[in-house]
Amino acid sequence: MHSYIERDLKKKFPETEGWQIERDPSWGAVTFDYQVWRRRFGTIQRYPVDVRIDTRVPADVVRDLQDRLVALASQEVKVTRPILFVPTGADISAVPDHVDVIPLKVLKVEEGDILWWRKTALHHPEH
Description:
The chain has helices at about 1-10, 60-75; strands spanning about 20-25, 25, 30, 35-40, 45-50, 85-90, 100-110, 115. It is an alpha/beta fold. The N and C termini lie far apart (about 40 Å).
């Protein structure tokens, strides 16, 4: 799964623009699945990234994310905006607007289940 997430992060945050992707970053007891960051004009832009493989993002997961963001702020770690990866079609109604949600294109919620979902090229047999 990491390769799909990292591929999507690299598209959104190209290395050619100075972005670095770090897996499992930690600040003391505060951890995220990824961190995307760059230093530009003397300032650090930082996007902590979490991955939630479930049919929905419940309120307790959102509270945990908020608590970790508050803990980062208390350590004077500046965050540009948090990112949350979820399967395509997951219920994200509990996620606040200040969190960027990126759908994982390889996973899809369908009829309450998470399915492996990859678009394949259509093949038209010759007649």
